[in-house]
# Entry
Amino acid sequence: MPEPLQILRSVFGHDKFRGPQEEIVHHVVQGGDALVLMPTGGGKSLCYQIPALCREGLAIVVSPLIALMRDQVETLRQAGVKAAFLNSTLSLPEQREIERAMFTGELDMVYVAPERLSQPRFLDLMERCRLGLFAIDEAHCVSQWGHDFRPDYLQLSILHERFPDVPRIALTATADGPTRKDIVQRLQLEEARQFVSGFDRPNIRYTIVPKRSPLEQLTSFIRSGFAGQSGIVYRMSRAKVEETAAKLCERGFEALPYHAGLDPAIRQRNQDRFLNEEGLVMVATVAFGMGIDKPDVRFVAHLDAPRSLEAYYQETGRAGRDGLPAHAWMAYGFGDVVAMRQMLAANDSDPQRRQIERAKLDALLRYCETTQCRRQILLSYFGEGKGEPCGNCDTCLNPALEWDGSLAAQKALSCIYRTGQRHGMGHLIEVLLGLETEKVCLNGHDKVSTFGIGKDLTSKEWQSVFRQILAQGLMGVDEHGGFHLVEESRPVLKGERKVMLRKDPEAARTRRPKGGTPGMVSAEDEPLWEALRKCRRDLAQRQKVPPYVIFHDSTLLDMVIHRPADLDEMAALDGIGASKLERYGQDFLDVLLSHRK
Ligand code: ADP
Ligand code: ZN
# Structure
């Protein structure tokens, strides 16, 4: 039996195992069952791919992501692995050919969609094959708790019943307590060893800016170092997606829309372009993303708040799968809080469900409004210990000031009360500032006791106060945007509850780009970097595969840093196994040599 480390090096071109990979691989190679929870980009694939190559017989990989199978298999083939996929996109003769190869033992690995596994015909075929391993990817799809539930996954327990001697490894990036329990139970993995890695994605920088003019802010964010890089922009509605994509194009970015209302052919084409080309911005609703494992997404931007912290973690997690620095950026403002609070108020599901929704919303708002390290808040939400502040989020990099807003909150709440609990923010601020506008006077609000008591703060500061007390649940908002008091307002008004607020940073200064460099390499190395990318692009186009199937950015970056001078030195770089060295080593070496200083 080949050694796992040997395979890691010669086939995949990596030097050493990462984190828990080694333990998992050894456990599975020896025939143990495993449940693996690892964050996106943690390196789950190798946890089953290496056992598949070490163990005798065929490995069956169950994956719900038909659209991705082709790329996954292509990546393996490039590394010299005998892999194939079986799904409905293949013609019948093509399917028969792969079934034949499964039977004759010509394949190491076959990717299949879950619905196929429970078909009697396929079960019979598997009975006649020599099987070495079952890998169940995206295992959370078996759970009704998650939003990716796939009924076909429920059938997968049959694997254990029909093939009790074949080890199984189930993998997922998203599994809270209940989901994990569900996976164990439904896939009959009670005996499996569980490998749970942390949720942290240290290479992702988290930033939230106060929303002012979101498109302008997005544009200057992209220009601050992400021009020409792949990114995803999430918006709440289809209309906003269309509008944002169009505006980005007007400003000279290559942006594509993606939402469920688009013609399926266009949607597919946009997704394919995003995966296959470099430097595109995908503007999308949450319909986009499941299984997008493009490794070089450099930023994920939210122009509307996500639905929950889970959703945020999952959506931002699509950035930086290759481990290189990536940015999760969000513009968040008063409108987002109002929308979320209104949605919750309109929610008429059962009380228990509402309670859960409320807790989720509060957690999200707490994250957005925090003056603490964002990563600590995010990780503690997923049940991970505090640890040190991360040093790679906006609040760590530019500590946000906190101030005692108790008095301001009292003024705001009593102003709501004195003006009849039906006015919105604009009107209340006018009253607080003592402005004798027509509406204020017509309503007689220039006579109320709170008229002009808020002159110590500016209009912008009052907006920040209102946003935060609404976020903290200290007042309520109706469907027209009018504010009213709630139970939680009382202790604030009575001075029994202290209200700490965050001082919003001033609007981010618009930084002009410095020559539009992508920021991955120094200006000096830029020509070599671009030449290497072009070489990769050409090779990829010739084979009609995405560039990252040839080499990841991290490997190209290694070439820039280490400047290998011959194939041996090239082979030492991360991500270059024997097969890729033979196929592409010389091409890239030529580029390197022609850029020698
Ligand atoms: P996941 O499926 O967990 O999101 P992948 O399996 O796609 O993650 O791996 C993420 C990235 O990490 C890939 O670019 C992969 O090549 C890289 N990687 C995985 N394991 C190693 C390792 N041991 N050494 C170096 N790079 C690795
Ligand atoms: Zn931090």
Remarks:
- The chain has a mean pLDDT of 90.
